[in-house]
Amino acid sequence: MNFERLAEHKWLTQLVGDWEVTTTMPNAEPMPPGTETVRSVGDFWVLAEGRGSMPDGSPAMTCLTLGYDPRMRHFVGTWLGSMLPHLFVYQGTLDAAANRLVLDCQGPDFSDPTRAASYREVVTIVDDTRRTFVSYLESPEGDWVEIMHADYRRV
């Protein structure tokens, strides 16, 4: 069975490579710098594996998968981190003019882990050597509040 590689699949290839990452969170100490390696998984997927340390010095590992599902007509993906027992499952759209991928998901409410919260992750390609990943939490009033900002530089 042959599937056509679409522009959305090609957009993901901009992420492929080795990156240094600096992560900040509002009202928190900066995270120690980390690294991420992104590779293609065939013509339709990318897999990003991150390594770093938590502020307390414990190791941190993350795994992000992204692809585009032409039948569903949106991006799909997952994120998991060694620091959380939750798998985030994404559904997203591409703003090609802004070179930005917007991913929505549900996850634990960190103030009450028995409840779910809505998250939005925004991947922006700044140029060939830089990209950002910004995470937002939906407030009870319906506003998107930035909770994490990661800046990636190609190595």
TrEMBL record:
Pfam families associated with the record: DUF1579
UniProt xrefs under InterPro entries: DUF1579
Name of the protein described by the UniProt record: DUF1579 domain-containing protein
Organism encoding this protein: Amorphus orientalis
